[in-house]
Amino acid sequence: MTVYVVGQIDVTDRDAYDRYRARFKDVLAKFDGRLLASDDHPTIIEGHWKRDKIVLLSFADDMAFHRFWQSPDYREIIKDRHAGTHSDVLLVKGIS
C-alpha cells in the first residue's frame, strides 16, 4: 500500500537547508521515492498554519519508506535538515 510523507518545515538556517536540498533528490531517487509537491507558500484554505513550507513524498509501501529513512545516505544528509529547520514529519497510509 502506498504511503505518503508530509513534511511541514520552518527554515531556520538557509545555508544548512540548501545543503540538504542539493542532495535530497538523488537520495530519494535511490529508494524509488517520489517528490509529489513542495511549496514554500501554500494557500491556507481553512484554519491556521504557521510553517514556511510543506513537502509531500510517496513510497510504494512502509518498507520502502523505512529503507530510505534509515539508509546511511539519508542519515548523512538529514544532519543538515536538522541543523537548518524545525520540522514535523508525518507518515500517512494510502487508501487501498
Key terms:
96 residues; alpha+beta; Alpha-Beta Plaits; 3 helices; 4 strands; flat
Give an overview of the whole structure:
With 96 residues, this protein is of the alpha+beta class. It has a single domain (3-93), classed as Alpha-Beta Plaits. The chain has three helices and four strands; from the N terminus they run E-H-E-E-H-H-E. A four-stranded antiparallel beta sheet has the order 2-3-1-4.
Structural class: alpha+beta
Low-confidence blocks of residues: none
Q: How many domains, as an integer?
A: 1
Shape, per Cα inertia axes: flat
Please identify the top-level CATH class: Alpha Beta
Largest sheet: 4 strands, antiparallel
CATH topology term: Alpha-Beta Plaits
Number of helices: 3
Report how far apart the termini are: 6 Å
Oligomer state of the chains in this structure: single chain
Strand content range = 25-35%
How are the elements arranged and paired?
Layout (H helix, E strand, L loop, with lengths): L2 E9 L2 H17 L3 E6 L13 E7 L2 H8 L2 H13 E9 L3
In short:
With 96 residues, this protein is of the alpha+beta class.
